[in-house]
Amino acid sequence: MNREEMQPEGAEFDERLEQVLDRLGTLVVPELATENDFVSRVMRRIRGAEVEVRRRRPSGRWLVRIAISTAACFVIALALWLTVAVRRSPPMTVASDKQEEKVTPTSPPLEAAPVVRTSTWSTVTENVVLERDVPVRKLVYREFERVELLDSQGNIKSHMIVPTKAMLVATREWY
Amino acid sequence: MQSDSQLVSAALQGDQAAFATMVDRYQRVARAVAFQAIGDHHAAEDAAQEAFLAAYQKLSSLREGSLFGRWLLTIVRRQAMRIRRARRRDIPLDHAAHVAEAEKNGLDHDAEFLLAALMGLPQRERQLLMLRHFGGHSVTDIAQMVGRPVGTVTKQLSRGYARLREQFTKAKS
Fold it and tell me: For the domain B4-172, what is the CATH code?
């Protein structure tokens, strides 16, 4: 190869480089007597050795991947199940009046329910608690509800805090 | 012209003619890679043959047919290194100087530098440059072989030339 033609200066370098690469190819890979000889030799060896394309089998790496995916799915399913289970059985908090100050609603009451007296167990609606001749007041906050047990003068005797959706269950247990 | 991917699929179905086409397509590139590692044309040819045989046996482990070229060249290189190690082990110490001389492979300094620089390119660019200049394939044929648009192949070839130029500039300065 000519040393001068490989000087990187000049705009024609790329063109020269392509020519030099072509020539390098002839040096590195000289023409065989017949190029087909190489192909036929390889193919003869393949046929002679009765080599067959091996069938695809799941490799160890694939088995490890499958195992990891299965474990990940199991963990996700377990986490979902635990989340749902915890939500279904919310903790019930009954506080005395002295602890009242500690209970700080995260938002102001949406609406204070009216006191309703009744002689039969009936139902708990969204804003009104109907109870057995017990004066009860229910305050609805965004995240929980506060149920207050009142005396005949309308003073708070005690109260309890329950998550909003568990109101019915909590009230039943309280009585 | 069928793409590498199509030929690999056909070979996996037992079509040996498809594999023969692959051998024809890549034989010069394979021999060049082996020659760069061993420095002897006959040994390089043997290494390339062994590599094609191994590639045929393990063809089913190739996940993407379009990657056949790069995958094959890795096998060739490994095979060539194995032959080179075996040759060194078999030659007595007092002939070591002759072996070292033989491994200079008859190329002058610049040609050897260019070959080494070519082998040091990223796999894809190296494959394309070798198919173009050692395999004597046109850009359009190469694009069909590797299953990429002509524009992409041209761009990658240009990038390869630019890298080689950069290496020459560094070496000359």
Answer: 1.10.1740.10
